[in-house]
Amino acid sequence: MDSRFHQELEQLRVTILKMANLTEKAVENAFRALWERDVQLADAIIARDHEIDQLEMEIDRIILRLLALDQPMARDLRFLVGCMRISSDLERIADQAVSIAHRARYLSTRPALPKDPALRDLTETSLDMLHVTLSCFANLNVDQAMDVCLMDDAVDELNLLTLKNLMDYMIHEAPAIERGVQAIITARCMERVADHCTNIAESVVFIVRGVNIKHHCEPFQ
Amino acid sequence: MEKFRVESLNFFYGRVAALKDISLSVQERQITALIGPSGCGKSTFLRCLNRMNDTIRGTRVQGKIFLDGQDIYKSGINVVELRQRVGMVFQRPNPFPQSIWDNVAFGPRVLGLDKHFHLPEIIENSLRGAALWEEVKDRLKQDALSLSLGQQQRLCIARTIAVRPEIILMDEPCSALDPIATLQIEELMQSLKKDYTLVIVTHNMQQAARVSDWTGFFWMGELVEFDVTEKIFTRPAQQLTEDYITGRAG
After folding, report:
1. Is this model's pTM higher than 0.80 or not?
2. Residue B114 neighbours by CB under 8 Å, 6+ apart
3. 8 A C-beta contact, residue B172 and residue B91
């Protein structure tokens, strides 16, 4: 039979999965609001962000209590420390979704920028990365975590390519500068989503293997 | 530097094997903690280190324990001298029903140290070493049993160090103490480490994690894992260790 402590750990896992689910939805909707020029959807993302903030605070409370009262060791300790980092990353991903929603609101009311395949690829790759990241946490799957870490380079390259394309466009179309800057910020937000996904994947590796791969994401034994 | 080296140690109570093929090293001036569930053999192992088990009828030892390279189970070893070098502190404080002074003086008198050294100096240094001097210096002739349990345990530590041991074995030294007295003993262990090698048996895993440099996990008479304490409590190599310290086994 599971102890009360282990039941509470499971409850914590469920709460983080709930937060992850809301965050994933916020990012998906932010991307949709951007590409479909949907102001209402963008407003809804901004309005619901507090739910994710509340969950982060609840998760902090649960973790602090379990650390203080149960003094966990080994895998349980790593799980709690990992969850603390992961909920912080999820909250920041949700903040990026809000930021993208603000850009989507602005861009929806202005003439459309030319379609940029790099920005489209960046959107899809960062969203894919988020899906894999949340799956790797849900299953504590180290192989998927390593995949996420390796995907980050592609996102960085797409971000740079988007930046270059938009700058080239702005050089020739001065009136588009403001929209271009907003699009650059959007691309940057997507890249930040990917960075936080990498952090989450690193936390999953830490939970499962007890190894810290921060800043040197390489395959390991 | 290695103080004890234990090689393939087996210990039997009659036909029952209480320790099976134990090998490990105890490092000098470090604290080694032994953890594991009741009956796993950790106290039996501790008592092997100064041959306290010799006093139990029907027991048998196989394997070797080297102290500074010398096998302590070799024939001809002076066990009294061994126990002077390897002192022991027990679970419940067990001062003699005598004065504080006489408790600390007992060992030096028996061993004749008082003939070579100035006894008041031994008493003061031992009580200082056990972080008790300031509390009792004005009442050394008072009955030791009038002290609180925490003070009694520190008195027992003072009594142990009065005979100038090299190693102190502690068998659950805080299990009868309240949290404040426990904290005092744990702090005392850290200061004792400067001069002595400590081996402690504890049921309290947080205590092992807090005070020790090395930890050995015993399970059913076997040493499952022995490593630096930080590794044992953050990422143990063995699944059984992880299950035990996270409360999933035992």
Report:
1. yes
2. B105, B108, B122
3. yes
How long, in residues, is chain A? Answer: 221
- B4 bridge partner residues: B26, B67
Burial of residue B54, with CB atoms counted within 10 A of its CB: 0-12 exposed, 13-18 middle, 19 or more buried? middle
Across B110-123, average pLDDT? 88
ipTM over 0.90: no
Name the average pLDDT for chain B: 94
Best probe of the A interface among B206, B234, B243, by most A CBs < 10 A, is B234
What are the residue boundaries of the structural domains of chain B, listed by start? Answer: 2-245
Q: Which residue, A156, A23, A176, is CA-closest to A98?
A: A23
Domains of chain A: 4-209 (1.20.58.220)
* Tens digits of residue pLDDT in A103-154: 999 999 999 988 899 999 999 999 999 999 999 999 999 999 999 999 999 9
Which positions in chain A touch B235 (Cβ < 8 Å)?
A: 74, 78, 209-211
Q: Quote the CA–CA distance of A20 and A131 in Å, as a whole number.
A: 10
Cβ neighbours of residue B175 closer than 8 Å, sequence gap 6 or more: B91, B202, B203, B204
- In the block, tokens 């196989």 appear at B62
- B246 part of contact set with chain A, CB < 8 Å: yes
Topology of domain B2-245 in CATH is Rossmann fold (3.40.50)
Axis-axis angle for helices A117-139, A142-172 (nearest 10): 160
Q: Which residues of A touch B234 (CB under 8 A)?
A: 73-74, 77-78, 210
Q: Which residue of A has its CA nearest to B245?
A: A73
